[in-house]
Amino acid sequence: MYLSVKKAIIFVATAWFAGTGLAQESDTDFLGTPKFVEGKHYVRIPIRVETQDRESIEVAEIFSYGCIHCFRFDPLVSVWAAKDRVGVVFRRVPAVFGASWAPLAELYYVAEILGVLDKIHEPIFRALHIDRLDLRDRAAVRRIFKSEAGVDPQEFDNVVKSFSVRSRVQQDDALVRMYRVEGVPSMIVDGIYRVDAKMAGSNELMLAVVDFLIEKIRLTNRNG
């Protein structure tokens, strides 16, 4: 499933909403091997976006803690990212479609800067979508960081207000625009291709398309 930007605007205004995605089957060859088609299952970004690691194929997940579809996708993409793929690096990019999205993106970078992202990432999702906590309430967020990762509330306050967090959120805003992301979750492969569940047909197929694109880039690089 998939959260479009249009529906996301409604979501931000109401704090909660349920979106729907369109399912479609991927094309297959006569052996049943997936055959994904540009313009149908994925799109090429008009201008390639520079990646952080030029020596590797970068796969980026564009997500938001506020997106229920991202919450459901997270276990799948986490398992996918944990697999050892030679020459492939994975990163998450919190979506910032506007100022109201920034506070959730800030939580990701606070956890990253403090070195507790592995302890905080899933609990933030759970707090919002299972426990139904209002993460605009800083006191509630401080309690999560304290209970899950032992972060002192004052330390949290110092980091969340820091220039480093603000600049990373601003960079996210620029990245999302350059990627031309239309909703979350979306995946960006090496700053060249974009795929989402609506195009691919499902979250599982989205990852299959990503694998297909990784091999496509590898083949292009070998032949280039």
What does this structure look like?
By secondary structure, this protein is α+β, with helices and mostly antiparallel strands. It has one domain (3-223): Glutaredoxin, CATH 3.40.30.10. Helix content is 50%, strand content 14%. It is built from nine helices and nine strands. The chain has a five-stranded mixed β-sheet, sandwiched between helices. It has a two-stranded antiparallel sheet with strand order 1-7. Helix 3 (102-113) packs antiparallel against helix 4 (117-129), helix 3 crosses helix 7 and helix 4 (117-129) crosses helix 5 (138-149). The model is unreliable at 9-26 (pLDDT under 50).
Oligomer: single chain
What is the count of structural domains? 1
Number of helices: 9
The CATH homologous superfamily = Glutaredoxin
Order of helices and strands: EHEEEEHEHHHHHEEEHH
Tell me the Rg in angstroms: 18 Å
CATH level 1 name? Alpha Beta
CATH architecture assignment: 3-Layer(aba) Sandwich
Gap between N and C termini: 36 Å
